[in-house]
Hints:
By secondary structure, the chain is of the alpha/beta class. It has eleven helices and eight strands. Helix content is about 45%, strand content about 15%. A hairpin with a 7-residue loop joins strand 6 and strand 7. The protein starts with a helix and ends with a helix.
Amino acid sequence: MVPRAVQTLQSVSLIACEDTRHSKKLLNHFSIDQPCVAYHDHGDRQMIEKLLVRLENGEDIALISDAGTPLISDPGYRLVEQARSRGITVVPIPGACAAIAALSVSGLPTDSFLFGGFLPAKSGQRKKALAELKASTETLVFYEAPHRILETVVDMVEVFGDQRQGFLAREMSKTFETYLRGSLSELQHQISVDSNQQRGEIVLVIAGASEKTEAITINSEKVLKLLLNELPASKAASLTAKICGADKKAMYQAALQFQGK
């Protein structure tokens, strides 16, 4: 907690929390006894209106989340949007952000990156989302739930290839803080043999595609789509792999996705 955050929480009229039970531990630590209220974007719209009325009446309200920077895959967007639309000043108090913290120590390029938040929970939808990012040259950053981390990395191996470089940051700043770096196949192995890597809060940082890989991917997708107009998925995938030097299995998966299967 930066000093400005503590000072702000001590001075506001009300603290809107993602979960008051979690927040009370933090507030008690700093002897902050300002009143708290639970706030969720998908909750009662009347709560948003109540907060906005208090803000319009000149009160200051702090919005906090359970961990990290509020609104980064946490509640708050709708309240901020409504406040700004009414001309209410919204000021950030910079602090910890898991995505940026993991990226900064990943050893992967940081000059250009894409934050993907949480990927879809179902494998089919997740692989489709990953396929759309396969040719991206930016470093990719994702959050993932511990019970899905292994199957997500398995899907990444299938879509991105087993040699794409990855980095896993787990429980940052906490007791069981862990960092793993290697190819996606190496990460898959480490996660599968060590159940501890399937616990806690996790950030995945994935290397972007090389320019050569991007060119091959774009070209292979064009060829695949043309062949799918004339051939079954398996045959089109096999020919595309031979013509473009692409992975046959990846081309077959792409063919099924193009056909909506």
